[in-house]
Amino acid sequence: MQNWKNITLDLIEYDLEDAFNKISHLEVLSVTIEDRRGITNSNWFDDPTNPSILNYKTHKIVILLEEKQSTNQLVTDIQKILGLHMPPNFNEEIFEDKDWVQYTQSQFKEILISNSLRILPPWEEDTSFNGTTIFIEPGSGFGTGSHPTTKLCLKWIEKNLKSNKRVLDFGSGSGILSIFAKKITGNLVSGVEIDKLAIKNANYNNKINGVKIDYILSNNFNFNEKFDIVLSNILANILISLSNNFEKITKNELLLSGILLNQVDQIIREYKPWIQLDLIDQEDGWCLLYGKLKS
Asked: Which CATH superfamily is domain 133-292 in?
């Protein structure tokens, strides 16, 4: 069986996006930028309106090669194409080939959210379970149920969401929150998402769960509509920018996540002119905020 190798570069004081674009022109199998940080400190998805600054302290470049390719020649080529005075520091890891589809699938197993709610990938056998099962195909849309923010939202929906409500999932990603809301209540549920590929992923997840939810590109969304409850599990800085828009569309309840503990006070301040938000749950440093408008 063929072997492969990963070459990890430490590019100090160099724009990693620029490096990525230049290295991608070399004869290599793949080039990726990977986050060095843990789940709490990482930007778990990017804000397209304010892209992350990628540098060696937070990220690294990993290059995939066939084992027979010369690492030294690659490093020399990188030094030349990036105009470096010295060869960059690197680490080499050789590994055996494997069934990558099987390996990828093995990384996503059953996720138990509660005694009555679980997440399954579509390739897992649907064994007997006394509760609700949501099937999620991992794709470009955030949300497989493994991240604390998703778990927090799912648990709240399970315990608190009532029937006969119009629900909006703003930043719907894989569709996991909207699908669960639809499954357990039959409510009229909609989703808003900035990414076309995420909407494609969400539509597929709707199909395998036997539900139908309308997902709307954010550029086409009408902020004059009203929803009984608005759910949003996205980055804190985007939540801040959306406060005025959420005021227009929230008829009764607002649930926000994607917020770190040290960001809670700022979010509450930004929303206070029109709704009182409270910290109602947290997990691994991530928080869930909830507010209800006075009648």
From this structure: Vaccinia Virus protein VP39 (3.40.50.150)
More reliable by pLDDT, 109 or 257: 257
Helix (H) or strand (E) holding 166: strand 166-170
Q: What is the largest CA-CA distance in the chain?
A: 70
The reply to whether CATH 1.10.10.10 applies to domain 3-97 is no
The CA-based dihedral angle spanning residues 52, 55, 59, 63, taken in that order and rounded to the nearest 10 degrees = 120
- The CA distance from 32 to 61, in Å, is 6
116: its two tokens: 């009555």
Does residue 44 have a pLDDT over 50?
Answer: no
Mean pLDDT of 87-109: 73
The pLDDT confidence band at residue 102, using thresholds 50, 70 and 90, is: low
Strand 59-66 with 3-10, pairing: antiparallel
Pairing of strands 227-233, 250-260: parallel
**Nearest-10 Cα torsion for 179, 270, 250, 225:** -100
> Rounded distance, CA 19 to CA 97, Å?
27
Mean pLDDT of the chain: 88
